[in-house]
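Marked as duplicate of an earlier ticket. Keeping the data here for the record.
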Amino acid sequence: MGNVGCKIIRDFKRPNQKIVELFRNLPVANIDDCMNRIAAVDSMIKPFNKVKLLGIAFTVKVPEGDNLMFHKAIDMAQPGDVVMIDAGGDTNRSILGELMLTYCKKRNLAGVVVDGSVRDADALVKLDFPIYAKSVTPNGPYKNGPGEINTPISIGGKTVCPGDIIVGDGDGIVIIKPEDAEFIAAQTKKVSEKEHRIIETMFNEGTYIRPWVDEKLKEIGCEII
């Protein structure tokens, strides 16, 4: 019998990097549109700088206010992994700060996402490394465990599994299953190209033609006087 709630899975199947790279520089808003507009994590989880996020989920579950398993995780994660930390949404104690994030950057990890708090906010703004979190507090973490590494977790109301593709920008974060990635990337590129054409038309012709607006108003029986 295992120690329930205290488990480390050493490795997992990672998607081919070519699949991950399909999302390079694609806007998160457009990706979310192509995932029925319900794929983004809770808006409370925000970026601390302008560095875009793209990589493969390496999952960590910790008790509120404890970072023992995160310390273990950053020694295990591989270059290109995004360490996704389920801290239960707790904001009373930080899970990490500048020191640990600098180590993550040195190891060429792709970023860190925390459903919880961080500290050293002034330094994180200047750090050339993607970091997303729910809140900031100077209160430091305990290091007692238990916790889990590379099991399914919850981040901002969304389930994250090891090997999922994580994309983040100033709008937030989406989580993509590898088996859906090629289809979603192709659809997102079409949406982005369409938006680019619309913007070009705005500048060149000063128009933004949307016949569906009047069609919808007619459908809902809007009285226009």
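See parent ticket for discussion. The chain has two domains: 6-179, 187-219.
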